[in-house]
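Quick question, first post here. What does this chain look like in 3D?
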Amino acid sequence: MQRPSVKAFFDEATYTITYIVSDPATSRAAIIDPVLDYDAASGRTSTVSADAVIGYLEKNGLGVDWILETHVHADHLSGAPYLQDRLGGQTAIGARVTAVQETFKGVFNLADLATDGSQFDRLFSDGDAFAVGDIEGRVMGTPGHTPACITYVIGDTAYVGDTLFMQDFGTARTDFPGGSASQLYASIQKILSLPDDTRLFMCHDYKAPGRDVYAWETTVATQRDENVHINKTVSEQEFVAMRESRDRELGMPRLLLPSIQVNVRAGQFPDPEDNDVRYLKIPLNAV
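> Answer (accepted):
Ran it through. Tokens below.
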């Protein structure tokens, strides 16, 4: 298989990993899951994380073909609009983002929110093909964490979003609207059907108990043999029971309310009000 170069940027504030995936032969690249820095206490944003991505691309002479989201994130704001303005490239996400938009349009009473995914340049469905330079890419629909979750397979690499974590940490929660533990099980089986030596890249890492360093790269074979939630000895029934039990004990992600409102708009903020200030909503007793 073709072997792209991969550069990871870890944002410890949100435990998110942004990737630059590039074709060494053509110097073309994709950015996956970019972060816009956000301070919840002050409501202030900054572009430190995104500027580090820009700096790497410029230093290495890389042009951008794609800015890819694995799903509508609930734990960080997307830096996609800022990066696209600076670098170009097409933004993309899974086509079922429309279901997520429909759900949260009601939750936040977003009268102006189009729910057809038109905020993104490209909506990907399962099996769609694309390219990073001359390296072939394809899309795997991997719902379960959310309905719109997809995995990007680029050469010998796959970017699994929140579907899987490192093998010593497990799998994603499924209690968000439209989530499903049984769907997640099926999606993970699709990922684990890739060749054993496929390099898998996680969207987050939280350091599993007993591990002192952050990690985000593993392989299909390692996940299949060692994942603490879903290794090859775990049945679907056992996985669903475990996942649903764990999910009942989880708290709300710290940045869910601001993140969702921004990310269903492809990272764009709401229009400013008559005082030229933009506002995000906090629904009381509704979530």
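Residues 205 and 263 are 20 Å apart (CA to CA).
The domain at 5-260 is CATH 3.60.15.10 (Metallo-beta-lactamase; Chain A).
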